[in-house]
Amino acid sequence: MNALAVAENLSLRFGQAARPALADVSASILAGRITGLVGPDGAGKTTFIRLLAGLLEPDNGRISVLGLDPVREPDRVHARIGYMPQKFGLYEDLSVAENLRLYAEVRGLAASERAATFSRLLGFTGLGPFTSRLAGRLSGGMKQKLGLACAMIRRPEILFLDEPSVGVDPISRRELWRMVRELAEDGIGVLWSTSYLDEAEACDEVLLLSEGRPLFFGPPGELTGRVAGRVFQIRDIEGNRRAVLRRALGQPGVLDGVIQGRFVRLVLADGATLPDPGELKAGETARIVPAPPRFEDAFMDVLGGGPGGDSPLSRGMPAKKAAREDVVAARGLTRRFGTFVAAKDITFAIRPGEIFGLLGPNGAGKSTTFKMMCGLLAPTSGQALVEGLSFAKARGQARARIGYMAQKFSLYGTLSVRQNLEFFSGAYGLTGERRDRAIGGMIDTFDLDPYLSASAGDLPLGYKQRLALACAVMHEPAVLFLDEPTSGVDPVTRREFWTHINGMVEKGVTIMVTTHFLDEAEYCDRIALVYRGRIIAMGSPDDLKDGVRTPDLPDPTLEDAFVTLVETDERAQASRDAPGKGGKAA
User: Fold this and answer.
1) Which conformational region is residue 478 in: left (phi greater than 0), alpha (psi within -120 to 50 degrees), or beta?
2) 94-99 own/partner pairs: CB under 8 Å, 24+ apart
3) Tens digit of pLDDT for each residue in 52-90?
4) Computed from CA positions of residues 477, 483, 489, 494, in that sequence, does the dihedral angle turn out positive or negative?
5) Range with the lowest mean pLDDT among 341-355, 476-490, 572-586?
6) Interatomic CA distance for residues 3 and 52, integer angstroms
7) What is the pLDDT, as a whole number, of residue 107?
């Protein structure tokens, strides 16, 4: 097959860094194929893309892109490729149409070709009705579609996408994937960097990097096949599945484990024996059965397994007193912005020691609801309560009982790691010995010592998230609000976070979380699905999956349930609005 880009034995070290950013990496990108680029944070994925795009020069090795040297002939390469960087590269104060015109000018698209090109791209991305909307006012999914359109202003022969689906809801992610697959079928070669391993599994080839070194390059099924016969589910668990997972991860030979709704999924080391359900205290009815392997199982196996089931954060945390009533409650929460209703009559209650997930597409009202629950946004009507306290009437008392980790990095980027810890300890009212003990505990728990003098804004993404969580929990809150806490981080770091979350819940902490990673939403005890400002479904992950199970979809994933429930609500709304069916007249 036609190789559009070839990398041979690439190596690069930045300055005096202790280890190279890339070391002896070889791969090729073929016409009409999607090559996935995966690996933990700091593995070298973005560096690899920038080398191929001619934005960096390697220390060693050879690169050929479309038969050209991107270092010696960057302009010729740039004229024939498309590149969508990881960070939003558009101008948020310009409209969709203005961004397209700007990129057309920069890429030298002839004026006579612009109208037809814009019409094609707007139709392809579904952005036609939004040409006058400012880019900064678009949802996450729409921003990514606009970014893709701008990268396609001049039809590229090869397309580099650096984590295009981060922060994008499952429906928009499916649409983005469909669009890119169409481009590949049209002969374009695609390099897609991703932290979603189900996306990697759908690629034609995958390059797996870790600490700058290649661990695998080839069809994803080849890697997945390596863990065949080593993946199992613990079923019919009696009692606390989080405790069962923790005990399982402490067993010899268990490399990795996650919660899948009512099940616990395990990956064993090669040659290891299955743990005894009795030792896991899973109950008399529990049984362990084989499960089909996934690419994510093989990914964790290649990396040597996950972080284990023990949480240093929760180990020293005192158990919360059992509350007799619901710890968090929303009662008729409504928020209007002018004539627009962002959230309407949101009502639910969260039990003590429960993980409650708030899910929904971008722009559905999920973030508005979450902010009202945290006291960051005043409702137009209704109440948000924490341990019976209303933010409207007892703001200070209610806030003292919660910890909050924002969706976007919300710490002070110009302050050092230590200064952030000191500031937030003071903000939460910690003083004296208690303050010193809390700061020291967070440094040890999250391994922050090497970064204490570094500016928070310069930290690797995984450590930014660790610091944000440390600042949110150092005062040992009874309730923790987590707004997409693992957005953009790799599966290993996600597991580390959920080990801490599970440990805190076992100590009685109540948690409300939003996420676009529906695999991790399986950890939730209950989920509320928000769409068009309303809760359209609520229940356990398994309840939602069971509700969409059909002969055509006998084993739905939580993502299948998410998409099906939203589409069902769309059809119901369209039927209500249709003239002659009790809906609105035209």
Assistant:
1) alpha
2) 94/134, 94/135, 95/131, 95/132, 95/133, 95/134, 95/135, 96/122, 96/127, 96/130, 96/131, 96/132, 96/133, 96/135, 96/138, 96/146, 97/131, 97/132, 99/135, 99/146, 99/150
3) 999 999 999 999 999 999 999 999 999 999 998 877 577
4) positive
5) 572-586
6) 13
7) 86
518, two tokens = 């529906």
pLDDT in tens, 292-324: 999 999 999 999 999 989 998 898 788 888 777
Strand partners, 81: 158
Three-state DSSP at 490 gives coil
Nearest-angstrom CA–CA distance, 234 and 177:
32
Instruction: Give the mean pLDDT of 3-21.
Output: 93
Residue pair 256/306 in contact (Cβ under 8 Å)? The answer is: yes
Dihedral angle sign, alpha carbons of residues 450, 456, 457, 463: positive
- Look at residue 150 and give its three-state secondary structure: helix
3-state secondary structure 40-62: CCCCCHHHHHHHHCCCCCCCEEE
Element (H, E) at 140: helix 140-151
Q: Where does the pLDDT of residue 581 fall: very low under 50, low under 70, confident under 90, or very high at 90 and above?
A: low
Q: How confident is the model at residue 165 (pLDDT cuts 50, 70, 90)?
A: confident
How far are the Cα atoms of 216, 241, 242, 280, 523 from residue 237, in angstroms, in the given order? 36, 7, 10, 10, 14
Q: What is the 3-state secondary structure (H, E, C) of 288-301?
A: EEECCCCHHHHHHH
- Separation in Å, CA 487 to CA 236, 373, 482: 31, 20, 11
Helix (H/G/I), strand (E/B), else coil: 156? coil
Q: Which of 349, 307, 242 is nearest to 447 (CA)?
A: 307
The angle that helices 111-125 and 96-106 make with each other, rounded to 10 degrees, is 130
249-302 pLDDT, tens digit per residue, is 999 999 999 999 899 999 999 999 999 988 999 999 999 999 999 999 999 999
What would the 3-class secondary structure string for 327-366 be? Answer: CEEEEEEEEEECCEEEEEEEEEEECCCCEEEEECCCCCCH
Banded pLDDT at 586 (limits 50, 70, 90): very low
pTM for this entry: 0.88
Q: Burial code of 106-123, b = ≥16 C-beta within 10 A, e = fewer?
A: ebebeeeeeeebbeebbe
* DSSP conformation class of 554: S
